């Protein structure tokens, strides 16, 4: 009997390991296919856009022999498939070429500017979470009321209004007219170089080094563009929170809790929201990914020295190495955040396993 149970236990562990191996294999295959598609898309973009990368390097007045030599050095004389394979090999090793605009390796430039984008997007998504979730819960609880209609209109406006126009109006009102926040940029010139870059995020680095004046100035600069991104995130999070909460409030366990005499606040915040939080993890992760990739216009309006502004300036100067490198980094981050949210969802909800 004991031997039979031991055999069954061994078979159970083997089946569990086999399922885990299959899941890991599917995950690796999914990542591989997605990244391969992303590499193919960025490579095609670099070949389709009407910009000659050779002219961007040598200029319009270069003699023909110089033009041809640089073309060969860039590998543009090779067959199309061979160019793609070389591009994939270099991209996977982190080599995106040299920026024409800065003469630095593209990866060096991205490592310098990307923390600013992460900082801006993180503050923006925190604003969206801290405001969007309570508003979504309130709209679900007060379904059909004036509060519900207000939250829905607020979300609709957040989806409809172009973010660059919203940013310009915010600068006009809160900076130019009311003088409540600092203007474009990341820091006033007075505070430049007072903080040694560690993480690349000024708010974090200034706290770590006890530079509270720098922190206050940086916060005054970031709060308006982050609020614009946060409003866009709020629109998505509040709508999805409302939908998830309506579904949970219609469940039988909510009726049972009310029959038992539990307070409405406890039912909503301790039980219904706790169950709705599982799919909300995916919503928040996707919202964060959208802010990382969609901050280009916001960074341009607010002169924020992040990856979005770097890509914009590179595109204006026909620096395709920088454009493709930045696009690939943003796409990769988006893919992994998407996959990470799916993994977290599976861990939190046993029904999806």
From TrEMBL:
Keywords: Cell membrane, Membrane, Transmembrane, Transmembrane helix, Transport. The keyword Disulfide bond does not apply. The chain crosses the membrane at residues 27-45, 120-141, 153-176, 218-237, 272-291, 322-345. The keyword Membrane applies. It is a multi-pass membrane protein. It is found in: Cell membrane. Residues 114-345 form the ABC transmembrane type-1 domain. It comes from the Bacteria. InterPro entries: BPD_transp_1_N, MetI-like, MetI-like_sf. CDD domains: TM_PBP2 (cd06261). Pfam families: BPD_transp_1, BPD_transp_1_N. Belongs to the binding-protein-dependent transport system permease family. This is ABC transporter permease. It comes from Chelatococcus albus.
